[in-house]
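ping. complex inputs:
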Amino acid sequence: MSQRSNIRDVSALAGVSIKTVSRVLNDHPYVSKTTRKKVEDAIKELDFRPSVAARILAGINSSQIALIYDNHSPYYIDQIQSGCWQRCHEAGVRLLGQPVDVADPDVGDQVRGLVSETHVDGIVLSSPVTDCDPVLRALEGLGIPFVRISPGTNHAMTSSVFMDDAQAADDMTTHLINLGHRRIAFVKGHPNHMASDERLFGYRRALDRAGLPFDPRWIADGAFDFDSGFLACQMFLALPERPTAVFASNDDMAAGVQAAAHQAGLDLPNDLSVAGFDDTTLARMVWPPLTTIRQPTFELARTATELLLTGQTLVHRRLQHELIERDSVAPLPAHKTATNNPLDRPST
Amino acid sequence: MSQRSNIRDVSALAGVSIKTVSRVLNDHPYVSKTTRKKVEDAIKELDFRPSVAARILAGINSSQIALIYDNHSPYYIDQIQSGCWQRCHEAGVRLLGQPVDVADPDVGDQVRGLVSETHVDGIVLSSPVTDCDPVLRALEGLGIPFVRISPGTNHAMTSSVFMDDAQAADDMTTHLINLGHRRIAFVKGHPNHMASDERLFGYRRALDRAGLPFDPRWIADGAFDFDSGFLACQMFLALPERPTAVFASNDDMAAGVQAAAHQAGLDLPNDLSVAGFDDTTLARMVWPPLTTIRQPTFELARTATELLLTGQTLVHRRLQHELIERDSVAPLPAHKTATNNPLDRPST
DNA sequence: TCGATCTTATAAACCGATTGATCTGTCAAG
DNA sequence: CTTGACAGATCAATCGGTTTATAAGATCGA
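pong. complex structure:
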């Protein structure tokens, strides 16, 4: 039976005072190497681990931070979590993952509870919690440090790390245009993610610059999940004038678009080019593999955690995105470029 | 500035003793309705939340449990987490998600640290941590209650919830045989998951019963991830006698198999049937959608948490699986059934 | 009316660490 | 031979709850 050992046991075994043990534990000055060694040996022998509960009560750091998220793309969350976790692991800090529902009327209260009950030292917010008012108010009221990953609003409030969603969407749209596509549909992201608007904006900007018209019928609402991409594509295919390319603003929706296209008997990517966004693992799993925007999700999370841990409260870091070409996007065949017949069908 | 309020503030405001407040908080007897009401009002007004740290120190439950996992399939983990989380949420218990690496030589130590530092009341183990010796020893030594999801060994040690992996694999294999397939390849799971052996066993049993030979060249090593499925399929396709169906022992690997087949120019499912296992969200995202075994992952996790929370230390529950037919498996065309020519190729 | 059972108060000990105040030695520089 | 700077001991308070012991008023049945 391994009875829990406490700081008294350690001090007794090492033959030093409790205060000295505490000094060793917290890296305080005025401890000689030999004393430190004695104490460390005693700690090892007793397998002593200071109780966080007691340290928290005594008012020092809890060495715990929380990651709060609400996301419907497991691959995305997996990367966010890994990034935070890795940095925490290096720093010897525990990470508590806390899923929430931003639509729940008492998220604010839940977050307040989390903080005052667990005494976490800080918080990492992932989109869309980054722009959830009740949560932001709760955190501000508590006066606890927090950083945000890809926030869409209140940029002056906290440190943040993000990418240029508008530019990335612009890049992808331009890429499609350069390949000859003129009828490019777009699937929007979940309305409570600010990135959704940014991506739509980038798409429109690229269209404008190329002198292409913006046609609202080629815009579909989405929710960052497979099903909404599927539905969006079905809608596009029912249009008298079909798009030759679909740009879905994340990979899950792009997979949905592809599935609907496959189901309709289209030959991908020749009959329809499909572009994604995020470059999650999923992008390589579907067929054809997705041409997509690589979002540095892991690094975003790692960097955010870094900022929190080092107490940099008001810095903003933009990380670089990258257009990844795979096989889901093809140049528009010549015969389709010429005609603009409304009754034109992808294949006979 | 919302100064933290403590139990003293509450007792003062409510005009009762600290002890009485404590009674209300812990649902102890001997509190009249009117007194209880007064205390509850005071709690609400002060937005008082008892500090877990203090309660832990005082020796009562921490109302926290941990979920320890090490898995390479985000969709699987997502479901496990959701199941645990939902049950915890209902019970007002906090869930700490803790990823580990079972191959790390000091997992045991990490787990011991987790328990003695956070004072969690119990632990849910997900495969393959369920069969990680250092972790099991650490937990036993600590004397902390824990339950396991799909353990492969030491069944008498703890409560567990699981499905019949062998029977499920048998079912799927039999399904393929019934559709006329005779050359059925199999992609094994990660060697540190006990379920991998079970599934292989079920596959062989079905083959035996049907009087079909077991050919080791049609067995590939896998690791439950996309890439290993991809590699396995490439290997199968290089064989002089190609399989007509591949049964991959999870969905991620099945997606890999499909990708390799697509890349080789095969027409799915006609040239090659592909079956998966798990029925994660991914199964519907790939093309063609996977015929797979539905593993009740969410319910498994929920039930495990239930057992832990209600203190049922030695019960075992088997949950039912189900064969889900989608479009990745097709009957073997007649002309292929007849011949068994080693040089036979899927398409000309 | 007496005793039993509720209901609540008061005071103090305790959980395991941190921290501040106070005090005693060492040892080396000036 | 002082004088500091450093190393460590001792004691007690503190964080925010739980819990035990003791006491006492209220309520109720016999």
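The CA atoms of residues 72 and 225 of chain B lie 7 Å apart.
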